[in-house]
Specification:
The strands form four sheets. Strands 3-2-1-4-5-6 form a six-stranded parallel sheet, with helices on both faces. The longest helix has 23 residues. The chain has ten helices and 14 strands. 42% of the residues are buried. Helix 4 crosses helix 5. It folds into two domains: 150 residues, Rossmann fold (3-Layer(aba) Sandwich); 161 residues, L-2-Hydroxyisocaproate Dehydrogenase, Chain A, domain 2 (Alpha-Beta Complex). With 332 residues, the protein is of the alpha/beta class. Strand 1, helix 1 and strand 2 form a beta-alpha-beta unit. The chain starts with 11 loop residues before the first strand and ends with a helix.
Amino acid sequence: MDNLATPSTAPVKVTVSGAAGNIAYSLLWRIASGDVFGPERPVDLTLLEIPDHVAATEGVAMELADSAFPLLNNVVVTADQKVAFDGVNAAFLVGAKPRGKGESRADMLQANGRIFIEQGRAINEGAAEDVRVLVVGNPANTNAYIASKAAPDVPAERFNALMRLDHNRSLSMLSAKLGIPTTQFEGMVVWGNHSDTQFPDIEFLTVGGKSISEQIDRDWYVNEFIPRVAKRGSEIIEVRGHSSAASAASAAVDHMRDWVNGTNGRWVTVAQPSKGEYGVDEGLVFGFPTTGLSGRASIVPGLDLNEFQRERIDANIAALREEAAVADQLFS
């Protein structure tokens, strides 16, 4: 039974990994206030951290208690994966090992692979039947691929990766360029991988039901907009001195809320396991245009792609195929 998509007053069990980190610090307050699961749904929160960060996480739990959220039913702090994912309905996998100095992307994938294999196995053993898992920690797409592969008894579509941040960044930049509120755009999608190959696509973009892609300067679109969306995280680090945190948390809220409640026919970007749609290898966790209804996320079918779109999508397939090959070695 899909309890998350059904109105209920029973607490929803939510686990957040990397709970002492900056993203979680913004995310937890949004979950506890009802922004994700609704203003009447109580929440049981489990904060998962590595042993060295448990003490700091206890401080986060104290602050959550001091906020006196009416919907916050219970808070547990743990470093035990089995405890963290026992009976969980929704998991935000935020914690991940960043790339160290001199490390390659393959090195980072291998380090994170061990983390997400362990979490995937714990989810497989203990999660609720209706579990939804959103991977936020980078490399998010392949971390989600790894966690799903480690949880063979959980349907693959229950594992998503966060590309809503790229989607939101795209809308924000288009809004600033065109002077149109973000809420008026329809048909935005960011195809592929949460990396520098990602493809924010405006070919299907409409405002008020009318296509506006031809109104957008092509040189700006190809040479400024696409690379800037992909490199926005680096731009924020350069300016702020820290990586994106509040915006990533906000995007995670948007993603899980729409996954549970639906999108009312509106397109959003969801990185989810492919079943072969648009030529993407089956199983790769890929950003697709998606609509949601009653807890189910459906890839928008039958879109006609031009040569430019196909080329950009194929570049993401190739990149994720390489990452999956590294990840697969961890299971051999």
